[in-house]
């Protein structure tokens, strides 16, 4: 009895702590967004007021004028990408599952049976008939007839019901305790966006990381001659103002720190994109792969369609959106609705049902 009381008390304390952490992180969201915009804007301001003034002082020759114009154009291009991709990532949101709660209750009343699988998990699985299901899955069949789900290949489908929010949970979706909702193809919760990174905004998040890393590297590159002149040369440096040197040094340190941190994160997400994984799935896949090796089995990531095909689907490169759209600061929607994903087993199947998936056909034909 005492153990039950202690376990119940610990559970209540854990829930209170989780609720407090979620509220705290949500309240800090606007602050982190403002801080991120302010830091990037500060480095950009120092670049135009100090770096450019020191790189092109006095009267310019025609060659210097062209060089300065190219520097300004390239820096504006980078800043456009950084701010717009960041805005797209924040505004678009990660994507939420469609609410099939009413359909679930109707199905429960009709069949009056709910099958709970593996009580330790965060969801139960309920077999649906005639309802627009949101995911595929593998479980014990209840002898249901094949049905057409969202226009995909026919076959029995299972919808997972999240225990935490009591709503349908499509494949690759996860419940975010901070946002208190399920997120489509969730990668992680980003405090700098005050939101999750998921199916709808992962592309914008990655491009924000990429162009911010490129911008920090560019700022560091243009600061090398100035740093050499200021600290290793006997030539006197004529700073634009008395506070220019300390502000420039702080901006250089800030850009260097962002380059290391954001560049590392960008490299990590590059690996995840090319291998068809999210951050959450990586840790799950690593565990399953390790267990399979112990059993002498070969484990395969079902969502890894090959490096180039993973790249195409992630950036939605096809007949409508060409590869150069990655170089343009525009909004490009993701492939599919985030509730059903193509698996490599579908591509290798003899009936070729993967090639019939209309939302992926354009990307498959280009490979």
As residue ranges, the low-confidence spans are 114-118, 120-157
Helix segment tally: 9
Strand content: 5-15%
Rg calc: 26 Å
Major sheet description: 3 strands, antiparallel
Outline of the structure:
This protein is mainly alpha-helical and 367 residues long. It contains 9 helices and 7 strands.
Comma- or semicolon-separated keywords:
3-stranded antiparallel β-sheet, 367 residues, 53% helix, two-stranded antiparallel ribbon, mainly alpha, 7 strands
Description:
- The protein is mostly helical and 367 residues long.
- The chain is 53% helix and 7% strand.
- The protein contains nine helices and seven strands, in the order αααβββββββαααααα.
- The strands form three sheets. The chain has a three-stranded antiparallel beta sheet, with no helix packed on it. Strands 4-5 form a two-stranded antiparallel ribbon. The chain has a two-stranded antiparallel ribbon with strand order 6-7.
- Strand 6 and strand 7 (195-197) form a beta hairpin.
């Amino acid at each position: 009895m005492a153990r039950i009381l202690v376990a119940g008390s610990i559970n209540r304390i854990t829930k209170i702590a989780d609720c407090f952490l979620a509220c705290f992180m949500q309240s800090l969201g606007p602050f982190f967004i403002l801080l991120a915009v302010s830091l990037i804007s500060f480095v950009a301001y120092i670049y135009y007021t100090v770096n450019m003034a020191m790189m092109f002082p006095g009267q310019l020759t025609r060659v210097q004028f062209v060089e300065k114009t190219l520097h300004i154009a390239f820096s504006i291009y980078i800043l456009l990408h950084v701010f717009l991709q960041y805005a797209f990532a924040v505004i678009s949101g990660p994507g939420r599952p469609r609410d099939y709660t009413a359909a679930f209750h109707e199905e429960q009343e009709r069949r009056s049976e709910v099958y709970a699988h593996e009580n330790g998990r965060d969801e139960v699985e309920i077999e649906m008939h005639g309802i627009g299901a949101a995911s595929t899955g593998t479980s014990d069949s209840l002898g249901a007839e094949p049905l057409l789900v969202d226009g995909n290949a026919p076959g029995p489908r299972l919808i997972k019901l999240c225990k935490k929010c009591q709503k349908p949970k499509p494949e690759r979706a996860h419940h975010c305790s901070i946002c208190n909702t399920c997120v489509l193809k969730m990668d992680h919760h980003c405090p700098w966006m005050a939101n999750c990174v998921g199916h709808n905004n992962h592309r914008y998040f990655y491009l924000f990381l990429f162009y911010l890393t490129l911008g920090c590297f560019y700022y560091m590159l243009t600061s090398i001659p100035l740093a050499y002149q200021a600290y290793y040369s006997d030539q006197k440096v004529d700073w634009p103002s008395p506070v220019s040197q300390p502000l420039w040094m702080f901006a250089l340190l800030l850009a260097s720190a962002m380059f290391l941190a954001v560049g590392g994160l960008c490299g990590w997400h590059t690996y995840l994109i090319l291998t068809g994984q999210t951050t959450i799935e990586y840790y799950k896949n690593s565990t399953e792969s390790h267990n399979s090796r112990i059993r002498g089995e070969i484990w395969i990531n079902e969502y890894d369609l090959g490096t180039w095909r993973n790249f195409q689907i992630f950036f939605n490169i096809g007949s409508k959106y060409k590869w150069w759209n990655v170089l343009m600061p525009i909004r490009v929607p993701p492939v599919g609705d985030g509730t059903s994903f193509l698996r490599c087993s579908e591509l290798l199947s003899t009936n070729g049902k993967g090639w019939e998936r209309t939302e992926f056909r354009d990307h498959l034909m280009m490979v």
